């Protein structure tokens, strides 16, 4: 698959240098079109055609994530992302401080290239279980011109604005209407890894809008058995239907009885939303 | 915000806030630019960034650490914090 690749410019930190190296490698081995972040910033029209035709991979060097921020600023549709410093940590490779790529750095480029080749089809895990209908019965919290919906039954919440709906030994999790309205248009969703065991309040994915970024924190402990594959192409589903089609992950529960101790019902969560909505205005 | 709580537990009783490793921090201020809760504060004198309002930090949020290029931000061990919150809730429930 031919890609457009937007890397870090690679002149500030060692991981950025390797973002640039990886982009060049993908150009050589896969015919990727490399997008220069400086030129893109000054003359976005120069890359209009490439961006319209090919899926976009953004390669950030360090967590400052300049390349991602540039993509968000220009309203680009991002299909895939990679953060070199995170990859280095995962691979256990210390690439040193030099702004010239060394042998360990190039080894990391090999690892990242191989990883990209193998993830053409995203792993979505098992088929999501029984159909979860979107709720129809809501409590509402009104603040100023905002109306926040909270499903009246079947859903529990943590104080970090994530919901859980349990059916049997499985649960579906997502973020609340308050989150999607506070973030405004969600443009990117990064899913958690399928198969991973998680504790309560561990990350189950992150969301980005032009305005902010948020890690969704799991209301329950267990194992991630599926993620919502539709969010890769349509993160706006979180805005449109946060309690239904915008679900984030499906979890095989491990200790729901204990998790429940730190969960809220709709009534209690509506009080949390009232308080947060008031604070957000100040 | 003296009345601030998390799951009914007074916020000041919960150990959850970032710690800055000053041997790594390069004062790029990305964490401060990111955090909407004024956890960090910039100073004229050294160190130019401090964790001024740890109790404003959203319990279990670690998002600022993700913005940190030099990886200078750490958080408490989450299972310990969860256990402590549950303990306090149980003690208060027994009263």
Descriptive tags:
heterodimer; A: 282 residues; alpha+beta; 4-stranded parallel beta sheet; 15 strands; globular; B: 95 residues; two-stranded antiparallel sheet; two-stranded antiparallel ribbon; 6 strands
Describe the structure.
The complex is a heterodimer of chains A (282) and B (95). With 282 residues, chain A is α+β, with helices and mostly antiparallel strands. In chain A, 34% of the residues lie in helices and 26% in strands. Chain A folds into 2 domains: 4-115; 138-280, RNA polymerase II/Efflux pump adaptor protein, barrel-sandwich hybrid domain (OB fold (Dihydrolipoamide Acetyltransferase, E2P)), CATH 2.40.50. Chain A has helices at 14-30, 37-42, 48-53, 66-73, 84-91, 103-118, 177-183, 230-233, 237-240, 256-259, 266-280, and strands at residues 4-7, 33-34, 56-60, 80-83, 138-143, 146-151, 155-157, 162-167, 170-175, 186-191, 197-198, 203-209, 213-217, 222-227, 249-253. In chain A, helix 1 crosses helix 6. Chain A is globular. In chain A, 44% of the residues are buried. Chain B is of the alpha+beta class and 95 residues long. Chain B has helices at residues 30-34, 63-66, 78-94; strands spanning 5-6, 9-10, 19-20, 40-42, 49-51, 73-74. Chain B has a two-stranded antiparallel sheet with strand order 1-2. Chain B has a two-stranded antiparallel ribbon with strand order 3-6. In chain B, a hairpin with a 2-residue loop joins strand 1 and strand 2. Chain B is elongated and about 45 Å long. Chain B starts with a strand and ends with a helix.
